[in-house]
Amino acid sequence: MQFEEYRNLWVFVETEENTAKSVGYELLSPGRVLADKMGGKLVAVVIGGNVKDVAEKTIDYGADEVILVEGDEYFNYSTDAYSYAMKTLVEKYKPSTILIGATNNGRDLGPKMACDLNTGLTADCTMLDYDTETGNMIWTRPAFGGNLMAMILCPDNRPQLGTVRPGIFKKPEPVTGKIGTMIYEDIHIAPENIRTKLLDRIKEVAEAVNLEEAEIIVSGGRGVGSPEGFEIIRRLAEELNATVGASRAVVDAGWMPHAHQVGQTGKTVSPKLYIACGISGAIQHSAGITGSDCIVAINKDEEAPIFDVADYGIVGDLFTVIPELIKEIQKL
Ligand code: FAD
Predict the structure, then answer these.
(1) Of 10, 32, 276, 305, whose CB neighbour count within 10 A is largest?
(2) Backbone angles phi, psi at 298, to 5 degrees
């Protein structure tokens, strides 16, 4: 059989400043199922500064084996150090499949590894399966702006690489006392071969926005016209004790922070009441709101697709409709 020497399923458990990113643990859930299907072991690969406790945790989360690589050069992510370590490990152990979280770093590491190892990579997967007849992974990911799901195979090369979106899979329930094997690998890269240097880390002060838990959401779209125009959305939200949401057009324009974005690349919400103001209702926005109990749309274009998913629609200028609404609410 072709690729006979390639065995086992690896999960790359990303760490940063000695702490694991949650997606690494999450991937151990589908990893377990896939490894069993392929008749191989579930192996976690943990690279970092001082991350033995992360490695031990992966065994609690179901890994049969952990390969641990530690060193100062791995305390923070760098393309050169991490891809060198991964290439060295892959050439030694020959895994059949590697799952990597589609974080910023994972999205950097995956393509570099695919290049170094002359293999394929399926980016941003949302579903994973394994074909026992052909030995190929079946990677599924949204394509054409989420309008269809593409199934992608990598039949001619090994290992098969895929990045997987965070939050798609649930972390496995930890089992304390599980026995697993810890393999220490002493891999280091000469400092002159690391071409980038982390100079500073500026953390974004994220506003606390809990759209997923909100009972009422008032969202604004490009129809509000400007950052100042958003004030009217905030006023209505205040009256209703609601959380403020936004379309991607608004976020891309810099009128609202990304934490407020609703939709395919933002938050999926399920409030009791969702009020969409000046939002056209593109499929990527609607995908995130269909779990709402009641959707009210305010739009001046009666043909806007938002009216197809709305329970109640108001055709009109939001700058006229919303003040009227506020007046009525204040009478209650
Ligand atoms: P527009 O489409 O420009 O609509 C503005 C609407 O406001 C129009 O319908 C107009 O009639 C109405 N309007 C204008 N003035 C007024 C007024 N005074 N009163 C009342 N109505 C008025 N979008 C998201 O929202 N969330 C996502 O997560 C997301 N993910 C995406 C992922 C991908 C891969 C891609 C390709 C796109 C994604 N998009 C997402 C973008 C999406 O396709 C749309 O471009 C976006 O939702 C449009 O935002 P909008 O409705 O605010 O703007």
Answers:
(1) 276
(2) -120, 115
Where residue 184 falls among pLDDT bands split at 50, 70, 90? very high
Q: Which two tokens stand for residue 40?
A: 């191989």
ipTM, two decimals, is: 0.99
Give the integer Cα–Cα distance in Å for 206 and 256: 12
The answer to whether 100 touches 161, Cβ cutoff 8 Å, is yes
pLDDT in tens, 236-251: 999 999 999 999 999 9
In terms of residues, how long is the chain?
A: 332
Provide residues with CB under 6 Å of ligand 1. 145-146, 221-223, 247-250, 261-266, 278-280, 282, 284-285, 288, 298-301, 304, 317-319
Q: Where are the beta strands (DSSP E) in 36-126?
A: 42-48, 65-70, 95-101, 121-125
Ligand 1 centroid from CA 250, angstroms: 8
CA 283 / ligand 1 centre spacing (Å): 9
Tokens, residue 168: 């798609």
Among 120, 130, 155, CA closest to 2? 155
Q: Whose CA is nearest to atom 18 of ligand 1?
A: 317
* Helix orientation angle between 318-331 and 231-240, rounded to the nearest 10 degrees: 20
Cα–Cα distances in angstroms (integers) from residue 296 to residues 93, 152, 260, 280, 301, in the given order: 56, 38, 18, 13, 14
Ligand 1 pocket mutation pick from 258, 285, 298 by most atoms within 8 angstroms of CB: 285
The answer, yes or no, to whether the previous bond of 172 is cis (omega within 30 of 0) is no
Global confidence as pTM: 0.68
